[in-house]
Amino acid sequence: MTPLLSVRDLRVGFGQNPAANEVVKGVSFDLAAGETLAIVGESGSGKSVTALSVNRLVDFGGGRITNGSIILQRSDGSTLDVAKAEEKVLRTIRGRDVGMIFQEPMTSLNPVHTVGAQIEEAFKLNRGLHGAEAERAALDVLDRVRIPDAKSRLAYYPHQLSGGMRQRVMIAMALASSPRLLIADEPTTALDVTVQAQIMALLAELRAETGMSMIFITHDIGLVAGIADRIMVMQHGLAVEQNTTDAVLDNPQHDYTKHLLNAVPHFTSGKAVRADGERAATSEPIIKVDDLVVRFPVKKGLFQPKGAIHAVDGVSFDLMPGETLAIVGESGSGKSTTARAILGLVEKHRGAIAAKPGRSRRPIQMVFQDPFASLNPRLNVEALMAEPAIANGQKLDDALRDRMRFLLDRVGLPADVLNRYPHQFSGGQRQRLCIARVLMLNPDVVVLDEAVSALDVSVQARVLDLLVDLQREFSLAYLFISHDMAVVERIAHRIAVMYAGQIVEIGEARSVLSDPQHSYTKRLISAVPAIERRRQHFAIDATQVPSLVRPAGYEPPPANWREAGQDHRVRIEEAK
Amino acid sequence: MQKLLRAFLRHPSGRIGLTIIALYLLAAVLGTLGLTPRDPLKLFAIDRLKPPSANYWFGTDLLGRDTFSRLMVGIKQSMIIAFSSVALATLFGTIIGLLAAWWGTLWDGILMRIMDVLLAFPAILLALLIIAIVGPGTGTSVAAIAIVYTPIFARVVRGPALSLKQRDFVDAARTFGSSQPYILSRHLLLNLVAPLAVQVTLALAWALLTEAGLSFLGLGTQPPTPSLGLMLAESKNLMTQAPWLMIFPALTIMLGILGFNLTGDALRDILDPRTQRREA
């Protein structure tokens, strides 16, 4: 049987001289009909460029195919070398033979048209359907991507839908033409874990229904374990290993694949939690948060009653010295707002945040998620590192520079970087710089707001190790905010699960991860992609997070807690 | 600094613009030091309305004064007014824009609405109004032009400042307890240097033109001090007899504006972070 797609010695370059600036340096692979190929690699490995060459979208990004062939079998049985085809022919391939979904569903949908109109357009262009026919087809395909209440959603604009819903709409549009090949470029990277699990399950079901082939691009080798038939690992523009999924995962041959597999946070349901840091009952908490409430007012109109977004609603916890408390939840759960309230970056509506006086004037420091946004691009490392000290009345002298060099060395940066600027560092190095910077003030507590989420997996693992080392060395307490259960498992002593602005479960890490009690915690844990669990099947659960906009004066019912073991408390769920 | 100059010399329009401005500054300095070919105020009664020649490079006017020397002094006058008014406008505009963005809500509303009112008047008209109230003179011209261009700088600063204020590095600075002046100067202003620099060069071109316009109307520099606008005004009755009297001041104004505009364009290209990154 001839393969659906056969790529031979593909080379793609960029810029004025494509042959000299090669990003893909000779990649070959075959894809049979109905098969799923996962292309895995870190950013800059050429995985996206390879996939974008298959429908020649790479041309629009300034890329040129300098060598090789891409033989695609078309739906009428003829074959075509995409690498040499004319733009006119290519237009008939995109959409019809090769569908595509992108990483960011907000930017790939047109904000001024309803989703219904956009799906109908796909049907008009690719199948020649019109009017009521197109509308029926759009409704049908929305049903197929499991959007609840599909009929009314047709009239929605993209901004009225959540990220997961938008990605479903994108998938629906790609499906409109019944493509034989679907290219998915990091389709779940921008989504929350439980939504990611839903989308992955949906793609798997759709593939079974339609028999289409898929090329799935991702940096997360754990994610594709459940869906891919074959895996191709790319590094520096070369395919370093390709084989069946089981072979790659269970018996990796290339060093880089082994390295990737090691770096992937393996989620083990609490078996790998840290053994150190037993909670001493006698010690006094360094931060005690009691009934914290943060609300953002919503203005509706001049005379309409005002409401408020209840971002954080009655959160209480305490943090002991030297301990890591992880706050886990999805976007919109209020975990970042809690952190910001503790640092005074957002005003609290009610509640108490008591911090024990620490070793310095500012005992609580914070590391932000995006290391590219949290460093002023116009200041050099010396100025960046000096800022916290200057803000607290120290002078920029040799003693201060010695401390900078000591901390930079401690986080694994060379000491001669003081005159460099942030753009000269990689993402991981910048995050190390941010960590060194908050240590300048010798804090007692470091709030890490998704501090490793923006990093590549292998870098992520090293930064996590660094954090654990630093915690011991400087006896820091961490408030670790994350959506990633596998990361949390490696660093947390205790875990608080947040859902819709409230803590629903809190307790010792091993206990929460191995024996989750609250339904949301269970959902969060079952959504974690894991190589070990790749043969399990996950049902699609399309439950949406409830709206947090409440009318003025609304107060949530008081929380009822039950003990689920020593240091493990669960909020009692209301009966539905 | 050296890197910036080298980038300028590599940029085609930057090269031309910078050369023009350098020549103008040279003329202005020589004009100030009195190093003109002839005394710009001295009357050579026998040499009235002489066309350009080896003796009088750009000809002479009705009173027999040397046009070239007068132009040099006129350039000096224009440059002084343009640079000082733009400096004032930059200073006040930046402060107003920064504070409006930083304090937000009420202050933002009040300050920016005042700026909007100023911006609603045509530049020359507003300057006319101010001069009509205070009376003509160099100082008044500077003040009037500064007031006219302050709102533009306030706007140029406020927009990016609003977005910078939301950036993580500003939040980070707050968690360190950095003082407000420190955050405003190191985190906001430093990141605003690029758009400001471009705006300054472009504003210099407008200021040059506005000054010439005011002098032309007799509201700027007062005779006998030579100024470009004044020379144009004096030449308009003699246009057919002595066209050089109009052509040379007009060309001087035009070239000056071109110089600043070309420099501004080049500066925008050079300071654009996208082109910067490509080099790095």
UniProtKB/TrEMBL annotation, chain A:
Where the record annotates domain ABC transporter, the positions are 7-261, 287-525
What kind of membrane protein is this, topologically? Peripheral membrane protein
| Domain of life of the organism encoding this protein | Bacteria
> Where are the membrane-spanning stretches?
none
Q: Which InterPro entries does the UniProt entry name for this protein?
A: AAA+_ATPase, ABC_Ni/Peptide_Import, ABC_transporter-like_ATP-bd, ABC_transporter-like_CS, Oligopep_ABC_C, P-loop_NTPase
**UniProt xrefs under Gene3D superfamilies:** P-loop containing nucleotide triphosphate hydrolases
Annotated keywords: ATP-binding, Cell membrane, Membrane, Nucleotide-binding, Transport
Compartments reported by the entry: Cell inner membrane
Give GO cellular component annotations, separated by semicolons. Answer: plasma membrane
Q: Which Pfam families match?
A: ABC_tran, oligo_HPY
What are the GO MF terms of this UniProt record? ATP binding; ATP hydrolysis activity
Q: GO biological process annotations for this chain's record? A: peptide transport; transmembrane transport
Q: Which family does it belong to?
A: Belongs to the ABC transporter superfamily.
Official protein name in the record: ABC transporter ATP-binding protein
Q: Which organism is it from?
A: Devosia riboflavina
From TrEMBL, chain B:
UniProt superkingdom: Bacteria
Question: Does the record's keyword annotation contain Transmembrane?
Answer: yes
Membrane topology classification: Multi-pass membrane protein
Instruction: Alphabetically list the UniProt keywords.
Output: Cell membrane, Membrane, Peptide transport, Protein transport, Transmembrane, Transmembrane helix, Transport
Q: Which GO terms describe its cellular component?
A: plasma membrane
State the Pfam families in the record.
BPD_transp_1
Q: Which residues form the ABC transmembrane type-1 domain?
A: 75-264
Q: Does the keyword Transport apply?
A: yes
InterPro entries, alphabetized: BP-dependent_transpt_permease, MetI-like, MetI-like_sf
Q: Where are the transmembrane segments?
A: 16-35, 79-102, 114-134, 140-157, 188-209, 244-264
Q: Where in the cell is it found?
A: Cell membrane
* UniProt similarity note: Belongs to the binding-protein-dependent transport system permease family.
Name of this chain's protein:
Diguanylate cyclase
